Amino acid sequence: MPQQNENYYAVLGVIPTASAEQIRAAYRDKVRIIHPDSAVVASPTASLQMAEVVRAWSTLSDSVLKRAYDAELFDADDDLESILFPPTPIVRGHFPKSLIGWILAIGITGVLVLNVLSDPIAPAKPDGLVQSGSCVVVDANKLAVEVGCEEDHYGVVRQLIGFDMTCPSDTEAIRDRQGMGQACVVPSQ
């Protein structure tokens, strides 16, 4: 079988788990390069190198010889997989505290910058629905009508209640224009 310190896989330049096609391709490439009749390399040792390549090819191309070669090359106790792919130790990852800190700092800075650069929120236009916090005027029919708070208004609605309920003593009960109940209005001074 193999001579001392001779590795047929190294001679062909393949790994022990290489397929038959990969071994054949490596053999052909080596023959093209080192063949004595080849013009690529004119070496006095080309015939010796060619003999090594042919010996490696004849062993690795035959599945029975390859199995016997592998058993001799790798001790019976050694598993081929453990030689080729030794187990990697499990390393516990660490929590990226500094990265999260930087992300938080950049996020907070971004929110503050956008707050400074943005326009102030425009007050909501009256939508005609009287609700808590709405500024109202009293129309000719003595009904509460919502208006913008920047305009002159009669008061601000504290709460809406049903018709059968009474408003707190510091507010004035005015019927809602839409007939939803009574608006308890705090009169403006």
Account of the protein in words:
With 189 residues, the protein is α+β, with helices and mostly antiparallel strands. It has 6 helices and 5 strands; from the N terminus they run H-H-H-H-H-H-E-E-E-E-E. It has a 5-stranded mixed beta barrel with strand order 1-2-4-5-3. Helix 2 (20-34) packs antiparallel against helix 3. The longest helix has 21 residues, at 97-117. It starts with 7 loop residues before the first helix and ends with a strand.
Helix content: 25-40%
What is the CATH topology of the domain at 8-84? Answer: Helix Hairpins
Assign the structural class, choosing from mainly alpha, mainly beta, alpha/beta, alpha+beta, or little secondary structure. alpha+beta
Q: Overall pLDDT, averaged?
A: 83
Top CATH class of the domain at 8-84? Mainly Alpha
- What is the CATH-assigned architecture of the domain at 8-84? Orthogonal Bundle
Distance between the termini: 112 Å
Radius of gyration: 46 Å
Strand content: 5-15%
Largest beta-sheet characterization: 5 strands, mixed, barrel
The run of helices and strands is: HHHHHHEEEEE
Uncertain regions: pLDDT < 50 for 5+ in a row?
none
Considering the protein shown, what is the CATH homologous superfamily of the domain at 8-84? DnaJ domain
The largest sheet has its strands arranged as 1-2-4-5-3
Q: What kind of oligomer do you see?
A: single chain
